[in-house]
């Protein structure tokens, strides 16, 4: 049996009377690329913050990399990587200094950091940019560097929150090549996006509408189930059904 690295049961987050994430239940397996889709305000980021140990759920259960989201948040943080649309890099440090800093934060030895620095400069094509300030890099380079830094410690799971926002289609495709390689190396990739074409790159996806998971399966199975040819059409049907039910 495949190892389950994310497991939630009726996970809920309330802010007063507002339910941001409503009783979501799902599992993610090791090495899987799991897409967490939905429009802005659907509850994606709220759910991810709970899974990362950054926000305490109001109710429900969840285990991340085998650790409980209520009582073992520090252990969760040590076993995950995280990247947001804002990249989480220090723009006033050089490329090399960013790699060294995050390697130290994640507990790598000096030898491991040196090896990772050399490997990243080669695989990312940054040999001539290692001493450049990150703030001076093109957006696509920042994006690829931020992802590589997020998995520098070989975490069990990497959480990517809208990682390809604002970049061109060619750079987005290159970024997904990095995701595929991470999954092949056994890292589970949990990615939120509002680009429906990126759903096609995932092994499975869940689709959230108004804080609830309304569909969960492989892209192929979902398109067959809704009898459509694209994930945009699947999402449109789900959103339309939600609108009708609220009327």
UniProtKB/TrEMBL annotation:
Residues 6-235 form the ABC transporter domain. InterPro entries: AAA+_ATPase, ABC_transporter-like_ATP-bd, P-loop_NTPase. GO terms for molecular function: ATP binding; ATP hydrolysis activity. Pfam families: ABC_tran. This is ABC transporter domain-containing protein. It comes from Persicobacter diffluens. PROSITE patterns: ABC_TRANSPORTER_2 (PS50893). Signal peptide: none annotated. It comes from the Bacteria. Keywords: ATP-binding, Nucleotide-binding.
